[in-house]
Structure of Uronate isomerase:
Amino acid sequence: MAKTFLGKNFLLNSDTAKELYHQYAKELPIIDYHCHLSPQEIYENKKFRSITEAWLGGDHYKWRVMRACGVDEELITGGADDYDKFLAWAKVVPQLLGNPLYHWTHLELQRFFGIDELLNERTAPAIWEKVNALLQGEGFGARDLIKKSKVTVVCTTDDPADSLEYHFKIKELEDFGTKVLPSYRPDKFLEINRDTFKPWLTKLEAAAGKPIGSYGALLDALRERMEFFHEAGGRVSDHALDTLEYQETTLREVEAIFDKALKKGSVTPAEERKYKSYTMRFLGKEYAERGWAMQLHIHALRNTNSAMLKRLGPDTGYDAINDGPVAAALAGLLNALERDGALPKTILYSLNPNDYPALASIMGCFQGGGVPGKIQFGTAWWFNDNKDGMLEQMKTLANLGVLAQFIGMLTDSRSFLSYTRHEYFRRLLCDVLGDWVERGEAPKDFELLGTMVTDICHDNAKRYFAFPE
Ligand SMILES: O=C[C@H](O)[C@@H](O)[C@@H](O)[C@H](O)C(=O)O
């Protein structure tokens, strides 16, 4: 007999899976150690004027499928009326069977708004009324949604030059127990050949309160900003390495490359490679000294559509999966850090699932130092954040590493309604374990399995990051 769509046992296909999810995973709090939420919106407990703002305001996943269904851009990112945009989305949803958005959309309707109906053109008007009435009432501000989802830690993604004003303000709030901590993301200064480099230096000079005329001064300023992030509770960094190259070099060489970039505005690809390699080594060492975790997000192919980039800017749905070699460069970087005695806890993600075996096997070469799960193979990212992608990531990790040490799920989202993705992940994890039990490939030992579920869904991340109390 077919199961109920999104029913109590959604994605849970065995009795063991059901027991694991309902008894162990379901009620655990969430540690969201990587996302793109706005600290200002959290501080202000932002209320959404409509479900359109909450759902379609910044979600490039939805924008892409709307475009694929022929919706006019005016109704996606344009100035159309909120209701018209919502209706356009509602017409698209029934076409999304098989896409994770179909599940996420209905899970969010169920969990946050108590709506079990399917969203489509016919149900749209009533759903619009009901959801908007709730959003405008009490208990649906950004902070309320975080509290409802039992989130204990949120790590936002921040520029090293950021004042972290809202992180400090959030700490002063008396009625909000969730820790909102910054993550240090120094991409703009690693990308020495991009237009953002010089404006970014000016921003950093302002934050540091002094001029940055040399590579040494840059490193000093970055170190000071790291200290500032640390005081604000930051324990995580994040890097977008769309391509990963590694090359041995010296400080003197890189100092000269930096000077050249300041004078001429650009450097050669070989110089860029050296600059990035040395700088990553510097950063890795600083992270290690502070006990931070370093996240490497590898192989996004960004801004592929230049006309749309000009029109809408980055992160608007024109990114894809990159390819190219990764193994030697990654091993080279980790090796250099290890050799310097400076390898931090590291989380490896690739947008290209073909990289998974390389990542998960290289990871095994750098474990050690008595830190459980020191090098992590991060959860399925972005285009892989779906049922098959998550299963592939978990199974690769189980085959090539230690699944029991996995720090589990994050949202990586810009929406306060995305916490249901943790539920999705937890159900899948329990289903994998349950399936192994069904097949006689794992013992039906709930103490063993329950501990594993609790660890992966919560406790490992708590231990791994050791966020300040
Ligand atoms: O899930 C998708 C992600 O949030 C994606 O938008 C980010 O990974 C972003 O491009 C980034 O560079 O951090």
Q: What stands out?
A: Residues 36, 240, 315, 382, 412 surround D-galacturonic acid (CB under 6 Å). The chain is about 50% helix and 10% strand.
